[in-house]
Amino acid sequence: VTNAFTDMPLARGPVMSNRLMLAPMTNCQSRADGVLGDDEARWLLLRARGGFGAVMTCAAHVLREGQAFEGQLGIWSEEHVAGLRELTDGLRAAGSVSAIQLHHGGERASAELTGMPTVCPWENGQSGARMLGTGEVENVASAFVEAALRAQRAGFDGVELHAAHGYLLGQFLNAEHNRRSDGFGGSFAHRRRLLDLILAEVRRCAGPGFQIGVRLSPERYGLDTAEMIELAESLMASGAVDYLDLSLWDCWAEPKDVRFAGRSLLECFSGLERGSARLGVAGNLRSASEVQRCLDAGIDFALIGRAAILHHDFPRQIQLDPTFEARALPVSRDFLAREGVGQKFIDYLARWENFVV
Ligand SMILES: Cc1cc2nc3c(=O)[nH]c(=O)nc-3n(C[C@H](O)[C@H](O)[C@H](O)COP(=O)(O)O)c2cc1C
Q1: Could you tell me how far CA 31 lies from the centroid of its own chain?
Q2: How far is the CA of 120 from the CAs of 22, 23, 140, 182, 339, in angstroms?
Q3: Does ligand 1 come within 6 angstroms of the Cβ of 284?
C-alpha cells in the first residue's frame, strides 16, 4: 500500500521522500523587478523544513509582459537567477525536491503593472488583449524554454508549465475562442501545439535529468474535459512529462460536463495510461485521511495549497497524527504570521473570501 510517506522516484531527477508537494501559490512577496523577496524565500524554506517532499514556487512569469500579479516572482532575466540559486540551495539542504512554475498571464496579465499591452491567442474584444502574431507565439515558446534553462542554472530540479486556470498556455487550449489558422489554433492538435513544442524544446535543451511537469485544469476557461483527458494521457504516456499536476479545487467534485457524470474528476484521470509519469492532484486536501483517499484512488502524489499556508509542517503533522486536520478558516493575521506567512502575503490572502479574520 502506498501511504503519504512512501518515497516517490520520478522518471528523472531526484526522488521525492514522500507524496506531498507544496502547491504553487502566488504570494506577492517578490520585488517589483521580479527578484525573489526575503519573505518569499522564508515562506518556501519553512515548508521544505516542515517536511514537504517537493516544494513548488508560485507562478513565475517568463516575460516581463506576462506578469499578472503585483509582487510576482520573475524568471525572465539573468537578474533573477542569483536569488533563486540561494533558494534552491536551501531547499536541497532541507531535503526537498524543488520546482519553479513557469507562467505567462496572456490576456490576464496586468497592463497596469507591466506598462505593456496584454496579448492573447485571439483578438479579444472583452479584455482588450491584442492577438499574438505567429512570430510572437514562437517568441513566447522561446521565452518558456529560456526560463526553464535559467531555472536549471539556478539549481531547480525541474519546472512546471502552468497551462491551467486560463493563463496564456491554457488560453491556447481554449476550444471556444482559439480559432487561429496558423497552426497554433483551430483543431485540438493545433491548440495544444504550443505546449507540445515547449515541452519538446525544454527536454532537448535541459537534458535528461531535469524534471518537467505540466499543470492542467480539467474544465472551465473554455476547455473541453474530453480533450483535457486526452491531453493528460498523451503527455504522460508519451513521456513528454515526468508528472502531471491536476488543479481540481475539490478532488471529489463531479465534472460539469454531463458526459462524465457519475464519477469524480479525479476518477476521470486516475485510470489513464501513465507510462513512467506521475500523477498529482490539488483540491482541498486538508487532512491525513483525505490525502490517503487520493493515494488509494491511484493518484501518485498530493499537492497541498491552503492547508500548507495554515501549517508550514503539514507533512510532519499528518505523519505524527493520522487524525490531523488543517485548522478551519478564517484564521487571524497573528496565526498566519506565526506560520511564516509574511505581511504582503497576508494582505493578499485577506482578499480571498473567508481566509483572514
Ligand atoms: C493564495 C493562493 C495562491 C495561488 N496561486 C497559484 C499559482 O500561482 N499557480 C497555480 O497554479 N495555482 C495557484 N493556486 C492554486 C493552488 O495551487 C491549489 O491548486 C488550490 O489552492 C487548491 O488546493 P488547496 O485546496 O490545497 O488550496 C493558488 C491558491 C491559493 C490559495
Answers
A1: 21
A2: 29, 26, 11, 14, 38
A3: yes
Cβ of 25 below 6 Å from ligand 1: yes
Cα–Cα distances (Å) from 281 to 36, 52, 146, in that order, read: 26, 15, 27
Smallest CA separation from ligand 1 atom 18, residue: 305
Ligand 1 pocket test: pick from 21, 22, 26 the residue with the most ligand atoms within 8 Å of its Cβ: 26
pLDDT lower than 70: segments of the chain: none
Q: What does the pLDDT read at residue 26?
A: 98
Please indicate whether residue 83, judged by its CB atom, sits closer than 6 Å to ligand 1: no
User: What is the predicted pLDDT for the residue at 214?
Assistant: 99
Q: For the whole prediction, is pTM greater than 0.90?
A: yes
The rounded Å distance from CA 266 to ligand 1 centre is 17
Q: If you measure from the C-alpha of residue 311 to the centroid of ligand 1, how many angstroms do you get, rounded to a whole number?
A: 15
Report which protein residue has its CA nearest ligand 1's atom 11.
24
For the chain, how long is the longest CA-to-CA vector? Answer: 56
Tens of pLDDT, residue by residue over 260-276, are 999 999 999 999 999 99
Burial class of residue 70 in the structure, from the number of CB atoms within 10 Å of its CB (0-12 exposed, 13-18 middle, 19+ buried): middle
Per residue in 31-74, pLDDT tens? Answer: 999 999 999 999 999 999 999 999 999 999 999 999 999 999 99
